[in-house]
Amino acid sequence: MTEKLLRPLRTRPWPERWLTRALGAVLSATAYLLCLPWDLRNRPETENSTLEATPLTGPGVVLLALALLLLAAYFGHRDALAWPLLLVAAPPTALLYASLRTHPGPPDGFANAWPLAWAFCTLLTAAGVLVVAAVARQFRADSADEELILAHRL
Is 75 exposed, middle or buried (0-12, 13-18, 19+ CB in 10 A)? Predict the structure, then answer.
């Protein structure tokens, strides 16, 4: 059973491939929503404060990063290198974009800084996912290597 869960997706039937990929995207989006929940109340932190309360916490960010890196390692090991970007990095960055786009910022001059924050978070997420996926890919035995090992044993 473990061998089936770790074999390259290209060797699996197409329904299993696409269901596994869909599950990865759903898990990635769910991790974002659980670790960084949206606070839609738009309330100030304290009375007369220009800063709004945020559900963003240090442990939430660390848990999200850990979940995304584990998913990136899994899909980097099982699939082509571009898939972890689409399955692991894209859903959280799309949700972050929607969150920042729909959430009005503070009334000061930093209200228009959200595109830079989104671009930085997207770049950081994509780079982390690509690095982890590339490292995990190194631990995958290619089918040519497997054939060579089997031929050597005979």
Answer: buried
| pLDDT tens digits for range 110-142 | 556 778 888 999 999 999 999 999 999 998 776
The pLDDT of residue 150 is 47
- pTM for this prediction: 0.77
The whole-angstrom separation of Cα 41 and Cα 102 is 12
pLDDT at 6: 67
CA distance 83 to 133: 9
Q: Write phi, then psi, for 44 (nearest 5 degrees).
A: -70, 155
Task: Give the Å distances, CA to CA, from 53 to 19, 37, 100, 102, 108.
Answer: 38, 12, 14, 16, 16
Question: Which pLDDT score, from 0 to 100, does residue 41 have?
Answer: 55
Both tokens assigned to 67: 């979940």
- In sequence order, what are the residues at sequence separation of 6 or more whose Cβ sits closer than 8 angstroms to the Cβ of residue 3? none
What's the CA gap between 106 and 42, in Å, rounded?
Answer: 10
